[in-house]
Design goal:
Radius of gyration: 25 Å
Helix content: over 70%
Strand content: under 5%
Number of strands: 0
Mean pLDDT: 86
Number of helices: 5
Number of domains: 1
Length: 98
């Protein structure tokens, strides 16, 4: 671990240690926490205390989770045409022009 600058304050040193030891959450962990909150078995405040995260972070993850789901569902209804379908439509369009 780095040593604080010689003229740094103790508060700066504590902030640096906290920054370096901040837990990184995997996508699976975030999803598990958000789904647990959506179930509503416990309050969001209680869930966040138990998981050791700020409520604001939970709500950021929740919003990202919902937006990703919305995009995925929209993508299911907006399917891309296959190259075969495009060729068939072009052939049909050419026949109609004649």
């Amino acid at each position: 671990m780095k040593q604080p600058p010689p003229n740094g304050t103790a508060e700066q040193h504590v902030r640096e240690i906290r920054r370096q030891t901040r837990k990184k959450y995997s996508a699976e962990e975030k999803i598990r926490i958000v789904i647990s909150g959506l179930r509503g078995e416990h309050s969001i405040a209680e869930l966040c205390r138990r998981e050791g995260i700020a409520e604001s972070l939970y709500y950021v993850w929740s919003k990202e989770f919902m937006e990703a789901g919305k995009k995925r569902l929209a993508g299911d209804t907006e399917r891309q045409a296959s190259s075969g379908e495009v060729k068939d439509l072009r052939r049909e369009m050419g026949a109609l022009k004649e």
